Amino acid sequence: MSDLPRRAVARSAKLAALPIGFAGRTALGLGKRIGGKPAEIVAQEIQQRTAEQIFKVLGELKGGAMKLGQALSIFEAALPAEVIGPYRAALTKLQDAAPPLPAATVHKVLVEQLGDDWRENFQSFEDRPTAAASIGQVHKAVWHDGRTVAVKIQYPGAGKALLSDFNQIARLGKLFGVLLPGLDIKAVLSELRERVAEELDYLREAEAQHAFALEFKDDPDFLIPDVIAANEQVLVSEWVDGIPLSRIIADGTKQERDRAGLQLVRFLFCSPARVGMLHADPHPGNFRIVEDGRLCVLDFGAVNRLPDGYPPAFGKLTRIFNNGDMENVVQGLRDEGFILPHIEVDAEALRAFLSPYVEPTAVEEFTFSREWLQTQAATVTDLRPSNVARQLNLPVSYVLIHRVHAAGLGVLCQLGATARFREEVIRWVPGFIEDDPEEQAVAAG
User: Which residue among 49, 83, 173, 234 is least enclosed by CB atoms within 10 Å?
Assistant: First the structure.
């Protein structure tokens, strides 16, 4: 892979340079502070330069560093647009322009994974991929029984590159602590490393996809292509034609966008209750609208296994917040690990920060918009230590849930969807209506 730096020395050198640069910026800041510049301004400058260098390096690497950058969307929410803009552009370029494996390399992988007679599995196989991503690419083919299939092939060496990146990034906890002092970054990195390691195992992905396909078989709202065959690095599943969600975002009618937004929320909220798993990579490329209007969901490499469904604390704290009981909200967040013992937060500042995000659950109908999202982002771009957003922790049990909520909000705002989202929360999120018999009756009916 020409775009995946293959020599461990080269990859390590880029990542190892970060702490050295940080030390230099800290010394520079000390000099400015002695010279009379306000300490808060100095700290802000150090944080911004630290962020710029972190995201520049992460954007240059395509393996685990890129995965980390995508997963930790909490950093994007906490940083100004001028910092994350170039970084996000680098990620988009890497995703959209990922050079496909040469046909000879694809064939070599298939021989290694399926044997010399791999072609006997297919009536035909298209050498040019239909999609390429950070750890693999997808080819269209016709299975030996005549079914059109999607063949997902993992890049050679992708696993080693991913895990090598994470081993290096795990040493940079102090840097991220500068940006978000309330976050236990080492625990978050450890959790993400385990989840990314799972994404490398296509057999595990096949197991998850098959579970979703069985549960949602003949569902009026959703279509999940079932798995036909799989091993650790090749996954063959049913091919589904449909309109990409990105096209609905760009050209769909208001009715189409509203329906797609409601379907997305319903799928994400109902899956833990119905399958015991949460699809943890909700970006537009993983969704299609098929001819009969159902939402087709693809790519189950990243799933959050929730055998007991959504954490009841999520619904309970949302309900308590809507009732205005900030004292118990703060205590509940401490109990769940969102506020670490040594961190003190201002309850009113926390209320102001959380209120917009909880708003869709407090009204019968809500409209998401890019402007709404920009307003929320503006509340957390302040890099001063007093900003409550920077004082919050992300417990490991909520890492993927946060990833889903952040990405899902982005998609809903791109769609500009208007719908009765509160009804989905009432129906599927435990704890949200625990103390409200009237709403319990509505949900049951």
Answer: 173
Quick one: CA dihedral 213, 219, 225, 229, positive or negative? positive
What ranges in 218-311 are assigned the alpha helix state H? 245-251, 254-275
> What's phi and psi for 75, nearest 5 deg?
-70, -40
Phi-psi region of 324 (alpha: psi -120 to 50; beta: other; left: phi over 0): left
Distance CA 423, CA 364 (A): 8
Compute how many other C-beta atoms are within 10 angstroms of the C-beta atom of residue 257.
Answer: 22
Show the CA angle centred on residue 185, arms to residues 9 and 47, nearest 5°: 85
The residue count for the chain: 445
CB–CB of 229/144 below 8 Å?
Answer: no
Would you say the C-alpha torsion 31, 36, 37, 43 has a positive or negative sign?
positive
**250 vs 192 pLDDT, higher one:** 250
- Mean pLDDT (the chain) is 78
Q: What distance in Å separates the CA atoms of residue 238 and residue 140, rounded to the nearest whole number?
A: 10
Q: Please tell me the predicted confidence (pLDDT) of residue 298.
A: 95
pTM of the entire predicted model: 0.78
Identify whether the C-beta of residue 417 lies closer than 8 Å to the C-beta of residue 367: yes
How far apart CA 357 and CA 353 sit, in angstroms, is: 8
Dihedral angle at the C-alpha atoms of 397, 399, 401, 407, nearest 10 degrees?
180
Write out the DSSP string of 60-120: H--SHHHHHHHH-HHHHHTS-HHHHHHHHHHHHHHHHTPPPPPHHHHHHHHHHHH-TTGGG
| Residue range 302-324, pLDDT digits in tens | 899 999 999 999 999 999 999 99
Give 92-119 pLDDT, tens digit per residue: 444 444 467 889 999 998 998 888 999 9
- Burial bucket for residue 358 (CB in 10 Å: 0-12, 13-18, 19+): middle
Per residue in 116-165, pLDDT (tens digit) is 999 999 999 999 999 876 678 899 999 999 999 999 998 888 777 777 76
What is the three-state SS of 161-184? HHHHHHHHHHHHHHHHHHHCCCCC
Q: What are the tens digits of pLDDT across the range 197-221?
A: 788 889 899 999 999 999 999 999 9
- Cα 11 from Cα 58, distance rounded (Å): 11
Q: Which two tokens stand for residue 225?
A: 């292509």
